[in-house]
Specification:
This protein is α/β, with parallel strands linked by helices. The chain is built from eight helices and seven strands. Strand 1, helix 4 and strand 2 form a beta-alpha-beta unit.
Length: about 220
């Protein structure tokens, strides 16, 4: 086997594994290891709420949110890749889901309207944000009074104790850094789960959740 052929196969496998957590054909499997209902309970999401799913990809979480908030609620599905949003719109049309609105965001701005949402969820996406403080500022403005943000990430075992920069390069992040940044942005940490199970049932990737609210002055 040539090195070129071997490299191509390794690259294909990596791309396949990366897509597996987001593509529609893998959503059913994802339901077996991700407790979506508990995530929503932690965020306090109720019928009629307006919720933003930042980093929505093709809509795994957005469609779960759609059912949770009901016809009287609204889901803002935000992503920076238009092709992902196009697929989400196709799935919504096929399923006759009408309470999801897609938003093509910028890398430093989710483009949410001021005071428009009750809850923002950022799942397995925060570590990709280079301008995270600017984005947190936009999120804070988009939240209604007493609005909440829930961040879910996975911390890879081999990256524990490393710098923020090194963790982010490895597509992972510790809750320690995120809590510091939320506080700096003017949020109050209200809930935390340090061990929310294993991402893709891989014991090397431990999920954690942090929930924060705006300060009274926010």
């Amino acid at each position: 086997m040539s090195l070129k052929f071997l490299f191509a196969n390794i690259l294909l496998l990596c791309l396949s594994n990366a897509a597996a957590q987001y593509s529609e054909e893998d959503w059913e499997d994802r339901d077996t290891w991700m407790n979506v209902s508990k995530i929503f309970d932690m965020a306090g999401i109720e019928k009629g709420n307006k919720v933003a799913d930042i980093g929505c990809h093709e809509g795994y979480l957005s469609f779960h949110l759609s059912k949770r908030v009901g016809e009287s609620g609204k889901v803002f599905a935000v992503d920076v890749e238009e092709y992902r949003l196009d697929r989400l719109k196709e799935y919504a049309k096929e399923r006759k889901v009408q309470n999801i609105e897609v938003i093509l965001g910028d890398y430093d701005n989710p483009k949410l309207t001021k005071g428009s949402v009750d809850v923002v969820i950022v799942m397995d996406t925060y570590h990709e944000m280079d301008d995270y403080m600017e984005i947190l500022g936009h999120i804070k403005k988009a939240l209604k009074p007493n609005g909440r943000i829930l961040i879910l990430e996975k911390l890879k075992k081999q990256k524990r104790g490393k710098s923020r920069e090194e963790q982010a390069r490895g597509h992972t992040l510790s809750s320690k850094y995120v809590k510091e940044e939320l506080k700096e942005a003017g949020f109050i940490i209200t809930k935390e789960i340090k061990d929310f199970g294993d991402w893709q049932e891989n014991e090397e990737k431990q999920m954690w959740i942090v929930v924060a609210e705006q300060t009274p002055a926010g």
